[in-house]
Amino acid sequence: MNKKGFTLVEILAVIVIISMIVVIAIPTSQGIAKKTNEKMYSTKLDIAVQSAKLWSFDKIICFKNGEFDKIDISSRSDDCKTNIEYITKDGDIKSYSMVLSQLAEEGYYDYDEADKIIDPRNKSQNLNGTLLFINYNIITKKIVSITIEKDPIN
Fold this sequence. Notes:
The chain is of the alpha+beta class. It contains 3 helices and 4 strands, in the order ααββαββ. It has a 4-stranded antiparallel sheet.
């Protein structure tokens, strides 16, 4: 007799092999996706720091003239109206803080979607409130560093 088709044993063997491949592949691909999202997050923060550097170089006169030391924003000159806050002085270094969304509002950083900078690790959260700290040396009159709060509370 001429048999056409597969036996039950052959079909079960194929199902077992495919199941083992799936069991191995899914956790591996999830790990790769998580690492990719962490890398995207890190890259976004690096871009944020670079954007803050560009912004601070464009606004260096505001630091030099002490405009950002004024609490009342309306008393600042027109070029220095950003809501940046003087927070501390440590020796010759003054620290100022601003949030990432301020850079986006001024065109130094791009929103991912309407008024949101999405956290790639958790798409339901955004990075708008991520704090950036700009450190300015009052003696040399230069920006010495820009740091970022890594894991802000949204």
